[in-house]
Amino acid sequence: MDLRDLSYFETIARTATYDEAAEILGRTKQALTKSVRRLEADIGGTLFERDGRGKALTALGIALLERAERLRLSVDDIGREMADLAGGRTGLVRIGTGMTPASHILPAACRQLRAAVPGIRLELEIGNSDFLQERLRHGTLDLILCPMDGGDLSDLDVRVVLDETVVVAAGVDHPLAGRGFELAELTEHGWMLQSQSSAMRAWLDAVFTSRNLAPPRVMVETGTIGVLTRVAEEMQLLTFTSRRNLNTLVELAHPETTMPRQFGLMSRRDAYLPPAARRLREFILATVAAGPA
């Protein structure tokens, strides 16, 4: 089985058409078709359904795609490890994080890392847990600090680093601020919330729908609440954010809308982790062990 054919197959499987894959790879459609035929001959089965104009994977194709991705990640890991060894590189760390650890854990850990490795370079991405976990699994991030929200994490090395509480919040001038309220009253006001793919959003929606109430009426949808608290305040919107990141907002306490969760420091299990990334992991864990963030 040719590694180049496997690489082509992975791109073909993840694009809408052979034409799109051909453009990405700089190959002709005919060359890619022949590549797939060679793989099918090696395997003894078909990788794509032949009916209609679609390009759906067969069960065999789905299985091969998963293994092809694993192989590519392994090859990428080998390349990075050999380059590090050959070049004696100080290192690049690619880390993804949510807003809370970016504010409460990373600053001290990065200060220690720079003191220990002055030439270090960081590539930092901020996003929700689904986005960061996908990036980690695809090998484009070395480490992530994100909520351990649902999903199967068995393929990842996970270390709990932070407990936090997510609450409903609003500006001090909001009609519900500073007084008690019934859960149903929250449905009468506009909200600024995470996207519908967010585990936090799903949890909050379920609080209402499970009690036969309408889900929050979203006026502003964003991937990152933490940097937009002023927007919620100025528009007199409710929001759902970490108690640590309220800034000028005030908590609207209600037991049904108080969500405990944990953040984990994650890397790919059994994958190559560059020396600089290992050092940063050590400093993050030391920062957490030193006291509450």
Automatic annotation (TrEMBL):
Keyword Transcription found: yes
GO molecular function, one term: DNA-binding transcription factor activity
Matches recorded under InterPro entries: LysR_HTH_N, LysR_subst-bd, WH-like_DNA-bd_sf, WH_DNA-bd_sf
SUPFAM superfamilies: Periplasmic binding protein-like II (SSF53850), Winged helix' DNA-binding domain (SSF46785)
Entries under Pfam families matching the protein: HTH_1, LysR_substrate
Keyword terms: DNA-binding, Transcription, Transcription regulation
Domain of life: Bacteria
Domain HTH lysR-type: 1-58
PANTHER family documented for this protein: HTH-TYPE TRANSCRIPTIONAL REGULATOR, HTH-TYPE TRANSCRIPTIONAL REGULATOR ABGR
Similarity annotation: Belongs to the LysR transcriptional regulatory family.
Protein name stated in the entry: LysR family transcriptional regulator
Organism: Halovulum dunhuangense
